[in-house]
Amino acid sequence: MKFHSHEKNITRGIGLGIFLLLTTYLLAFVIFGRPTGLILVLFIVELLFITVLLIIFFRQGQQGRALVVPLAAGILLSLVTVMIAIFMGTTLIHAPLPPPDSPAWSSGSPVIAMAVSTDEISTSSPEARELLIGGLTVASRNNQFAAAIPYYDQALAIDPDFTEAWMAKGVALHNLGSYAEAVGCLDRALAIDPANAAAWSLRGIILDSWNRPDEAAACYRKAGDLDSRYQPI
């Protein structure tokens, strides 16, 4: 019984290792586009963990068929975990910017938020992409908008045509009360992507906060012309 229990522990450990390995690898691609930094180290450690357990397993003369169930369970659980993470990220973190008549904009709060869908990020640079996501994450923690700006600046240093980074920086500057600089960031975003309805809508929101309602209304109209979700009230 003891030997049988030891064998089960090893096979379960291999299944757990496969689960962790696949989950780490897949989430790294979903979030950052590729494994980077600490994720690579974690990936290597997990690979070594599985290798050691496999060596022990086969040195004990065990049959490979004993690994079928734990391997299948590890793969299945990994896929389910990644799907749940993608769903939660899409619904809670990476939702598209709401139109101007949404409660998010009409709540009266001077603070606005920005989120982007990971599959719509325009940059081809994984580093810039990672920095944008890092900045948005920092900004979401207790409204640390000033701390988020260096992330956006670094992303823009890598890719000056990174539309979402300009938009995110504009949102952060707006929330810090720097309206002129915020509008300047949205102007840069629109120079890169003039058909970006979300950017036009954000520009209007910033101009509203800056007490320039006529210019804001023109931005809302432009956003509405580009995307019916952004029709002005």
TrEMBL record:
InterPro entries cross-referenced by the UniProt entry: TPR-like_helical_dom_sf, TPR_rpt, Ycf3/AcsC/BcsC/TPR_MFPF
Pfam families according to UniProt: TPR_19
Alphabetized Gene3D superfamilies for the sequence: Tetratricopeptide repeat domain
Membrane-spanning intervals of the chain: 12-32, 38-58, 67-93
Keywords: Membrane, Repeat, TPR repeat, Transmembrane, Transmembrane helix
Protein name according to UniProt: Uncharacterized protein
